[in-house]
Inverse folding.
C-alpha cells in the first residue's frame, strides 16, 4: 500500500489496521483511490479489480485478483477473501456486480451492502429505473423508447445501461433523435432534456434499509459524467427526496440520486446509482465528526446499529478535484516515489 502524505509532502507510515475491527472488501475499485484510502484509515481494506493497473487498489492493505463477474467462480472467490481477512462488509464501487452481490447477500453468502437483486437490476437499466420510479410515485422526467411518440423537444438520447455520461446526446428535434438512436450502437431511451440546475444527493442506508443520511450537492462542473466541482447545500426538498428514494428502493449501503429542477415540471430524477457516487469527497467533507460514510459502514460491519441522522451535516463546503498518479516497478509494485511532491494546503498553524 502506498503510504499517505502529510500536508508538508513528507510520506507518513500507512495506518495500522485494527485487528478487532472487521475488514472491508471493495470490488471494482478502478480509479476510486479516494474511497479506498478513506476506508483504509479505519480498518483493513481488501481491494479487487479485473484490471491489474487499477490505481485505487494501491490504497488498500491487500489487493487480489478474482475471476470476472460473469464467471461462476466470482462469488466463491469473494467468499474466500471474506474468510481469509475477516471481512464484515462488501462494498461495490461499480454498477457491474450489484445484482450478483445482491443475490449473494440474499443467500447469506456475502455481507454485501447492496439492495435486493431486483432493485439492483432495475436501477442498472435506466429505462427500467424510470418505470420503477413512476410505479413508486417518485418524480422521473418523461421517458420513452425509440419509436414511441415524444411529447416535446429537446430530448436526451441515452444508453439504457452505462455510466460516466457515455454516449449521451441532446436532440433538438425528431430527426436528430432518430439519428442518435441509430448512431449509438446499443439499446437506448429518449428522455426529456431537463432545463434547470442539476444536483446529486449522496445517501447512506443501513442493512435494514433505513436512510441514515442524505447530503445534497450542486453539480458545478463534470467530466465524463463525474462531478469534479460542487458545493454541499442544505436543501430540505432534496434531503427528503433522497431519503424517500433510498427507502422506497430498499437500498443498503451507499446510493447517489441525480436530479434536475426543471423550470416547467420541477424535480425530476435522472439516475439512481446504488453505490458511491463520483463526487465522494462532498459527503466526506460535509459529514459530522465520526459520521463519514466509510466510518459508518465500518461501524455497521462491527454489528453496531446506527441511528438515522438525516439532514445533519455541514453545508456550504465546496470541493474541487484533481488527478495524481503512482509509479510502479516492473512487477507492478509501487516504488514510493513521485516525480513531483503533490501540492496541498500548508500545515495548520
Amino acid at each position: 500500500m502506498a503510504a499517505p502524505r502529510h500536508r508538508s509532502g513528507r510520506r507518513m507510515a500507512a495506518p495500522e489496521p485494527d485487528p478487532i475491527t472487521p475488514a472491508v472488501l471493495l470490488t471494482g475499485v478502478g480509479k476510486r483511490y479516494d474511497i479506498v484510502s478513506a476506508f483504509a484509515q479505519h480498518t483493513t481494506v481488501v481491494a479487487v479489480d479485473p484490471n491489474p493497473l487499477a490505481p485505487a487498489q494501491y490504497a488498500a492493505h491487500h489487493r487480489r485478483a478474482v475471476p470476472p463477474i460473469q464467471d461462476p467462480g466470482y462469488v466463491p472467490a469473494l467468499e474466500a477473501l471474506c474468510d481469509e481477512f475477516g471481512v464484515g462488509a462488501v462494498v461495490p464501487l461499480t454498477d457491474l456486480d450489484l445484482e450478483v452481490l445482491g443475490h449473494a447477500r440474499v443467500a447469506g453468502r456475502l455481507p454485501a451492502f447492496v439492495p435486493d437483486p431486483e432493485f439492483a437490476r432495475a436501477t442498472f437499466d435506466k429505462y427500467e429505473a424510470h418505470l420503477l420510479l413512476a410505479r413508486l410515485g417518485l418524480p422521473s422526467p418523461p421517458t420513452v423508447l425509440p419509436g414511441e411518440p415524444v411529447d416535446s423537444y429537446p430530448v436526451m438520447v441515452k444508453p439504457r445501461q452505462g455510466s460516466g455520461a457515455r454516449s449521451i446526446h441532446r436532440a433538438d428535434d425528431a430527426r436528430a433523435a432518430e439519428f442518435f438512436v441509430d448512431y449509438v450502437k446499443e439499446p437506448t431511451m429518449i428522455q426529456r432534456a431537463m432545463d434547470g440546475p442539476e444536483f446529486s444527493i449522496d445517501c447512506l442506508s443501513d442493512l435494514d434499509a433505513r436512510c441514515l443520511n442524505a447530503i445534497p450537492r450542486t453539480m458545478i462542473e463534470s467530466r465524463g459524467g463525474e462531478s469534479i466541482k460542487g458545493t454541499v447545500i442544505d436543501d430540505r426538498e432534496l434531503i427528503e427526496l433522497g431519503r424517500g428514494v433510498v427507502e422506497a428502493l430498499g437500498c443498503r449501503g451507499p446510493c447517489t440520486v441525480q436530479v434536475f429542477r426543471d423550470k416547467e415540471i420541477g424535480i425530476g430524477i435522472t439516475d439512481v446509482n446504488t453505490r458511491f457516487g463520483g463526487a465522494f469527497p462532498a459527503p466526506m467533507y460535509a459529514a459530522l465528526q465520526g459520521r463519514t460514510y466509510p466510518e459508518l459502514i465500518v461501524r455497521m460491519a462491527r454489528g453496531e446499529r446506527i441511528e438515522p441522522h438525516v439532514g445533519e451535516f455541514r453545508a456550504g463546503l465546496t470541493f474541487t478535484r484533481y488527478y495524481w498518479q503512482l509509479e510502479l516497478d516492473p512487477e507492478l509494485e509501487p516504488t514510493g516515489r513521485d516525480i513531483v511532491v503533490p501540492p496541498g494546503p500548508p500545515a495548520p498553524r
Summary: The chain has two domains: 23-125+196-320, 142-192. The chain is about 25% helix and 25% strand. Residues 236-248 form the longest helix (13 residues).
